[in-house]
Amino acid sequence: MTRLTIMIVAALAGFGGAAVASPAAPDSAAIAGVTAAFHAALAAGDSTAALALLADDAVVLEGGDRETRADYAAHHLGADVAFAQAMTGTRTVEGVAQVGDAAWVWATSTESGTWHDHAVDAVGAELMVLSREGGDWRIRAIHWSSHKRRP
Predict the structure, then answer these.
(1) Which domains can be identified in the chain, with CATH numbers?
(2) What is the DSSP string of 78-134?
(3) Residues near 109 by Cβ (< 8 Å), separated by ≥ 6?
(4) 97-128 pLDDT, tens per residue?
(5) What 3-state class would DSSP assign to 24?
(6) Are residues 90 and 112 in contact, defined by beta-carbon separation less than 8 angstroms?
(7) Residue 119 pairs with which residues in a beta bridge?
(8) Who has the most CB within 10 Å: 79, 86, 88, 105?
(9) Average pLDDT over residues 88-104
């Protein structure tokens, strides 16, 4: 676990010290299910469902940029929907951690297809930070990175 991850979770959970993640988060199925539902909504072209899973103050970090939830809805969400629909691949949840009402999910992915007349063959990494609000898990932050698949 990186120091940044510990700091994020500690801040979300309201802790002043270091948080320790349990290997099997108590709500791991529900937490991972929210991230899977977000990806399923993108692939289905359902931007309303995707946005419903994001907290009002969510941030999306991708390609060196930061977008608020409103920025994401107005600018990048449509491209993410189109990209998800154009690609084939896999997303593998590598781990889920939970500290109280804060959680994070890390996943890897592969994507291939054609995007804007260019062949895509990429691998990616994802970190989603969630918090529990009124019994429901909401995505508070998404960080995506990817690169061309290396031989």
Answers:
(1) 3-15+25-148 (3.10.450.50)
(2) HHHHHHHHHEEEEEEEEEEEEETTEEEEEEEEEEEEEETTEEEEEEEEEEEEEEEET
(3) 89, 90, 91, 92, 123, 124, 125, 126, 146
(4) 999 999 999 999 999 999 999 999 999 999 99
(5) coil
(6) no
(7) 114
(8) 105
(9) 95
